[in-house]
Amino acid sequence: MPKCMSCQKNIQWKSVYISTWFPNKTIQCNTCDSIYKITSHNYISLAILIPMMVSGWYINRFLPLPWSIFIGLPSIILLGLVITLIVPFFVKVERI
Ligand SMILES: [Zn+2]
User: Fold this and answer.
1) Phi, psi for 3 (deg, rounded to 5)
2) Sign of the C-alpha dihedral computed for residues 68, 20, 87 and 85 taken in this order
3) What is the 54 CA–ligand 1 centroid distance (Å)?
4) pTM value?
5) What is the pLDDT of residue 57?
6) In the prediction, which pLDDT does 64 show?
């Protein structure tokens, strides 16, 4: 988790998570009210898209067509969602 630069406390997962979905939304430290924004949005997009594309390619290759849609598509979307849950632990923030 990113730490607050003023009070050294971890910034809440929930506010970082919301900010990964809405880049314009700032992150506020719960303890000292410092305001941050995520600096690594391009890396976040890549960290979500690349595993989704690779698993899509993989599923498409090994499952016949109707199955690759009914099983593959939901599992790729689920994979993307799981990655977005983990991403807040690795983002970098800067104070604004
Ligand atoms: Zn703080």
Assistant:
1) -100, 150
2) negative
3) 38
4) 0.79
5) 87
6) 82
